[in-house]
Amino acid sequence: MKGRATLEQGETSSKRSRKTFGWQFMLRVGVTVILLVWIFTRQADLVGALRVLGRAVPAYVALGFLLFLIGELITVYKWQLLLKSQGVHCRFFDLTRAMLIGEFYSMFLPSSVGGDVARIALTRAAAGSTSVAASAALMQRNTGMGGLLILALIATSLVEIRFGVFGGALAAFDNLRTWFAVVAGVYAAINMVLFSERVRTLLWRRLAKPATHLPILARFISFADAFHGATGDMRKVFPVALLLSVLTQFLDCLMGWCAARAIGAPMSVTEACVFVPAATLTALLPLSVNGIGLREVAYLTLTSHAGLSKEQAVALSTIHFACLVGLAVIGGLWHLLSPAAVAGEHSLRKEEGKESLPTKS
Questions:
Q1: Could you write out the three-class secondary structure of the chain?
Q2: Is residue 239 part of a domain?
Q3: What rounded mean pLDDT belongs to the chain?
Q4: Residue 161 domain-assigned?
Q5: Residue 344's closest CA among 95, 120, 139, 132?
Q6: What's the domain count of the chain?
Q7: Cα separation, 352 vs 207, whole angstroms
Q8: Higher pLDDT residue, 186 or 1?
């Protein structure tokens, strides 16, 4: 009876989770629709934006996508480096497939977390544990955010962007650089916690003893402890991974600059290093579907400082999003050709040619 009651409670909890997730997704869809309606009725002319896109120079668009793809490949190398720091050796080809399949899931599932789940599933066998695979996936994202913030802080020290909204005691927040600095401060604090062995000891190891009577909680704490430990062990390659991330973020900004050149918009490389990171950060807010609407608002708000028209700003955002979709489509086609990869089979193997380690949590 007790087991049956537990099962019923689990099913009820699962139904509630699905219902909550459904409402959250519908809310995001609503926000996306509202933003797009506002943009094309109050800000930019849809027909005008389409005309700008229609006049785009294909060669510049292709060059921008190529730079974007090269940045993705450098990210794969960084991911490989992070896994190697844990004694996990995966082929670059296999990690490239995993990365692009993750982009497909991030783009075409309601939540971008789906891409990380796919990457963890693809590398879990080779890593020998879910905690190590999850830690490498997190640090791949984490260092990417660090590279973005470093590049943005440098660029905003060269190009001053003011909103004309805040004044008086809040005047500092009228400068875009201040907002990047605030996010960078939060980022630094989070990484101090991630790399701290003292925090790991105080948090997870102290919680382990009282949790022994609750198997589910005990398993979670065990996983969190192993995850925290693996993340801390990656600090030795963190500086190199961070530098690689600065390079990949710069290539993303060059993609934005190429997009601007394609539509004849007056935007310098330095300005691209401000606008693209700002739009990327804004699109990460969990308010719309895949950042649609939010990305456009960011470009509309900021690119006017470079003299872009509103239609050009929307066109620029559209090309940026098209590059993201392009990577996702490549990943989706690759997944279609090798569906077993995400099914949890041994798709990733040790470089020595041995079978992947058995999955364990």
A1: CHHHHHHHHHHHHHHHHHHHHHHHHHHHHHHHHHHHHHHHHHHCCHHHHHHHHHCCCHHHHHHHHHHHHHHHHHHHHHHHHHHHCCCCCCCHHHHHHHHHHHHHHHHHCCCCHHHHHHHHHHHHHHHCCHHHHHHHHHHHHHHHHHHHHHHHHHHHHHCCCECCCCCHHHHHHHEHHHHHHHHHHHHHHHHHHHCCHHHHHHHHHHHHCHHHHCHHHHHHHHHHHHHHHHHHHHHHCHHHHHHHHHHHHHHHHHHHHHHHHHCCCCCCHHHHHHHHHHHHHHHCCCCCHHHCCHHHHHHHHHHHHHCCCHHHHHHHHHHHHHHHHHHHHHHHHHHHHCHHHCCCCCCCCCCCCCCCCCCCC
A2: yes
A3: 83
A4: yes
A5: 120
A6: 1
A7: 38
A8: 186
Query: What is the rounded end-to-end Cα distance, in angstroms, of the chain?
Result: 29
Q: Is 179:173 a contact under the CB 8 Å cutoff?
A: yes
Phi/psi at 175 (5° precision): -100, 130
Answer whether residue 219 is part of any domain.
yes
The Cα-based distances of 47 to 44, 201, 310, 315, 326 in angstroms read 9, 59, 12, 11, 24
Residue 223 domain flag: yes
Whole-number pLDDT of residue 326: 95
Is the pLDDT at 233 greater than 80? The verdict is no
Provide the pLDDT for residue 20: 62
**Which residue range is the domain that position 206 belongs to?**
44-341
Q: Mean pLDDT, to the nearest integer, of 82-86?
A: 89
15 pLDDT higher than 50: yes
**pLDDT score of 290:** 86
Average pLDDT over residues 87-103: 90
Q: Does the pLDDT at position 205 exceed 50?
A: yes
Q: State the burial class of residue 183 (Cβ atoms within 10 Å of its Cβ: 0-12, 13-18, 19+).
A: middle
Predicted pLDDT at 209: 60
